[in-house]
Every structure is written in C-alpha cells, then in structure tokens.
Specification:
about 260 residues, alpha/beta, globular
Length: about 260
C-alpha cells in the first residue's frame, strides 16, 4: 500500500529533545542529540545495532534516565517530573515492543483488556468489550479474540501487541523494530498497519528500525543515528542522496545485494 500523505503540524512538537547524552561506563551511546517529533508525523530513526536507537526511546518513555539534556514529551520534561506524573504521561504513549510482550497465559481478549482494567478502574464491561472489538478490527484480527498467543503467527502477535497499545488511545506511538524477524509479506502488512494507525488514530510516532523498506514505507522523515549523533535528517531521498560511506552501506545492503 502506498503511503498516504500525512497531515503534519510542523509548528507543534510533541517530543522535543535537546542536548541528550547517555553513556554506559566509558561508552558514549548518545552524544548530545537534538530531535523533534511533530504532531501527526511518523519519524523513523535508523541506525546500526548498538547505535543507541532503543536507548533513545527508553529515555523518551522514562525507562532510562539521561546523563545530560532535556526530553520534553507532550509538554512534560520526562527527566524532571514526579513518578506519578510520569505514570500519567506513559498512558498517553503507546510502546510497541520488538517481541510484542503478550502474556502467554492470557487469551487475546484478556491481553487487550489488561491495560484498560489496570488504568481505567471505573470502566464498564460494555465499554471494555467495545474497546477490544474496535482495536481488533483496526488490526484486522477480530477472529483471534479467544485464541492464545501461542496459536498466533509472528505477524499476528505483532498486530495484537499494537492493538493492546492502541486500546488506551495513545497520542504518541513508539515502535521498536516493528518488522524484526518477520517474512517480507508480513513486513509489508505491518508497515501498512503503522500507516493505518497514523491515519485512523492521528498518532505521532517514532519508529526504530534498521529495515529500509520499513523506513521508506512508513517514514515522513528519517533520522540517521551515527556515532551517537543524528548525522542526516530529512526525507528518505534526502538522507540517502549522499556519498557518505557510513550511510551508503545501509542502502546497498537493503536494496542492491
């Protein structure tokens, strides 16, 4: 499916990162990066394994603390708010984990109900049923409602993981390697789903990947993380229209070999 041009508000930054630094022992992972995610935008962060992509979204969601710099999410400085405020902010952020993070002992229905019951104590059974049916329809997996995660394919588990994130109607989506370990046809389906989520739920998303097909299919903008900094930021064509030997291997590996 060809990506529909998104309605992006480039005057409204929902995530703003300034001077962000993070090191583990003597290894400098992030070296003073700046980045903005705008309202309604799909922003892809590309980089080699170990380049700090996953560290970045863990800092954004408050799972890791930066050494220096500020991360502002939906108007809140993540590294300077209370635990209660952070918990409230996280409800507004959807985190799609690489391994889907489903509970193996729960049916699809129970997996989807869990975040609702946990975060919205006064929700009715009718509201829960409607929410579950709505998100399952959104990911085209209504027929799996009573199945166990072990009965699902890798692509189906990924979709259910995204559905469980969507059930709280997040304003921001964070996707960690959404196509990792999937066959090419399923990758296309997940890429299409990411775009559908953007349109249907009006989300702003950061997509962490090293899959250039995913990047080209889903990204309104691409940010290339190299040597702990964003070396190239722009459209797919702008990022890869270069002779930079640190960038060219990404393109050649994905589209030439």
């Amino acid at each position: 499916m060809e990506k529909v041009k998104a309605d992006i508000d480039y005057k409204n930054s929902v995530i703003s990162i300034r001077g962000l630094r993070k090191a583990f022992d003597d290894f400098q992972v992030l070296r003073g990066i700046d980045l903005d995610l705008y309202q309604g935008e799909n922003l892809v962060v590309l980089g080699r394994s170990g380049s700090g992509k996953s560290v970045l979204i863990k800092i954004i969601s408050g799972l890791l603390t930066p050494d220096k710099g500020d991360v502002t999410v939906l108007g809140k400085k993540v590294n300077k708010i209370s635990d209660k405020e952070l918990q409230e902010l996280r409800i507004r952020i959807g985190f799609s984990f690489q391994a889907s993070a489903l509970y193996d002992s729960m049916t699809v229905r129970k997996n989807l109900e869990f975040p609702l019951v946990r975060n919205r104590r006064h929700i009715t059974r009718k509201e829960i049923n409607t929410a579950v049916e709505t998100v399952l329809d959104a990911v085209s997996l209504s027929q799996t409602i009573n199945q166990m995660p072990s009965e699902l394919s890798g692509g189906q588990r990924k979709r259910i993981g995204i559905a469980r994130t969507l059930i709280l109607n997040p304003e921001i989506m964070l996707y960690d390697e959404p196509t990792a370990g999937l066959d090419p046809i399923t990758c296309i389906e997940i890429n299409d789903l990411i775009n559908e989520v953007q349109q249907r739920y009006n989300t702003s998303s950061i997509i962490i990947t090293h899959d250039l097909t995913c990047a080209k299919s889903t990204g309104d903008r691409i940010a290339m993380l190299l040597d702990g900094q964003f070396q190239r930021v722009g459209t797919f064509e702008e990022v890869f229209n270069t002779e930079d030997e640190r960038v060219k291997p990404f393109f050649e590996y994905n589209f030439i070999q």
